[in-house]
Q: What sequence folds into this?
């Protein structure tokens, strides 16, 4: 099953770090200072002291995700990440788990589209042991054949089982249909066919090529002295030889022209899950703050225009939203919801009407004020713990974003005007060029949705894979 939803899911300690990111004097959002250094072997190290809670959080990014998967072996990056804790040169999977449990530490590794993310969190008093375990998994994975076979079998079964729930796979089908042969169209966790092709030698080779110091960012936040932590990390990673790694070239996907529709036939479905959209934006999109404000109004919160229309006023669904899945190059934009089979066309029509209204009327000053206050209230708790901070600075480093991404956020939010919002809507919200993906009972909903696009494609959910036009499909 795809690990997409877990790719950047770093452990949260559940304890709010003291001296959080709000300045008590000015009530202005500020990212705590951190140090950046490139070690002799090429690893980029970010160190942020965060005193008050005796916890150390580590967040590493290896700059190779599913876009680095060979064609036909989709899921290789995800499987490689999943095996890091399943046995090293000196520890079995069970021994590694026992050693983590002994110090109350947590370790995770997951691959997304752009990169693989690793994280570990432990008490400050266990720093030496925590670093030793982290470096063992990162530097010395053994990829035991028995663990390889077990994980692959679990993942293949997971993909098959996921198709019992349309909600679990809707966006995988949508991404495959939207991006086609672009690497972002690949199922990040693989599918039944691609995972069956993955062999241990390919896993070991993927690790050898991509898990290099020059290909890695390591962020550490929490209770420590930066100079001492740097020395400990240099010692823990001393045996990791300097290698730059080779990153796959990835071009920006071309937006879809016109309208096309994919219907996934799930004969036992009583509901239709649908996604409508086109290519969206990259993480470094200049309009990203204004887009966040506008999308909060349009589809980014419970009181958004979409949810109000489709849930609150019409009762067609329990939820409707819109999102920009920004990546290193432009990712997806989607309107996403679900409804009963018999109200499929009604719900889609209403969603399109809300989109048309956004283009026609823009947003009001009152809506902007509400959205700005909402974002300012919701964002600070996402950078309060050491784990959240480590994840944030690692991600910003990967995407080439500086501290001003946080420090100037409030000012950039305040700068959004109705006129700027109108420009953002015209530029980033597709209206005439749309991709539709629906999962439902084709015999009931098929005739009703023919009106949305001249180009129509259909696939049975029981068929292996997700979309044969996606990159690497055979």
A:
């Amino acid at each position: 099953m795809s690990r997409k939803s877990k790719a950047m899911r770093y452990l949260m300690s559940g304890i709010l770090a003291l001296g959080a990111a709000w300045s008590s004097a000015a009530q202005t959002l500020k990212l705590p200072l951190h140090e950046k250094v490139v070690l002799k072997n090429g690893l980029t190290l970010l160190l942020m002291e965060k005193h008050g809670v005796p916890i150390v959080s580590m967040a590493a990014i290896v700059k190779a995700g599913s876009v680095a998967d060979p064609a036909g072996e989709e899921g290789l990056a995800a499987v490689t990440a999943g095996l890091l804790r399943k046995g090293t040169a000196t520890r079995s999977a069970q021994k590694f788990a026992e050693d983590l449990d002994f110090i109350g530490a947590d370790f995770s590794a997951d691959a997304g589209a752009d990169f693989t993310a690793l994280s570990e969190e432990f008490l400050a008093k266990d720093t030496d042991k925590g670093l030793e375990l982290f470096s063992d998994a990162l530097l010395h994975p053994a990829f035991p054949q028995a663990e390889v076979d077990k994980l692959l079998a679990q993942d293949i079964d997971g993909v098959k089982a996921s198709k019992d729930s349309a909600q679990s796979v809707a966006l995988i089908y949508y991404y495959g249909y939207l991006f086609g042969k672009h690497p972002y169209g690949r199922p990040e966790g693989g599918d039944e066919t691609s995972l069956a092709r993955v062999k241990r030698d390919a896993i070991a080779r993927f690790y050898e090529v991509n898990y290099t110091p020059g290909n890695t960012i390591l962020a550490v936040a929490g209770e420590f002295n930066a100079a001492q932590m740097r020395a400990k990390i240099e010692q823990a990673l001393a045996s990791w030889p300097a290698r730059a790694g080779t990153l796959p070239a990835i071009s920006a996907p071309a937006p879809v022209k016109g309208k096309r529709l994919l219907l996934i036939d799930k004969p036992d479905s009583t509901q239709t899950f649908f996604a409508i959209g086109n290519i969206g934006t990259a993480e470094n999109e200049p309009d990203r703050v204004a887009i966040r404000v506008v999308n909060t109004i349009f589809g980014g919160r419970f009181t958004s225009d979409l949810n109000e229309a489709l849930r609150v006023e019409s009762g067609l669904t329990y939820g409707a939203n819109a999102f920009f899945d920004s990546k290193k190059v432009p990712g997806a934009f989607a309107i996403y919801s679900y409804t009963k089979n018999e109200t499929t066309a009604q719900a889609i029509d209403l969603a399109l009407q809300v989109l048309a209204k956004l283009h026609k009327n823009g947003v009001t000053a009152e809506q902007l004020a509400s959205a700005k206050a909402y974002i300012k209230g919701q964002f600070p708790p996402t950078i309060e713990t050491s784990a959240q901070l480590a994840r944030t600075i690692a991600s910003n480093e990967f995407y080439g974003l500086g501290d001003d991404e946080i420090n100037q956020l409030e000012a950039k939010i305040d700068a959004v005007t109705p006129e700027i919002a109108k420009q953002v809507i015209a530029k980033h919200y597709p209206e005439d060029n749309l991709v539709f993906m629906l999962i439902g009972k084709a015999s009931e909903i098929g005739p009703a949705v023919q009106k949305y696009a001249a180009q129509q494609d259909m696939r049975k959910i029981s068929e292996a894979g997700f979309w044969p036009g996606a990159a690497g499909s055979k």
The chain has a mean pLDDT of 92. The two ends are 19 Å apart (CA to CA). Residues 145-162 form the longest helix (18 residues). The longest strand covers residues 271-279.
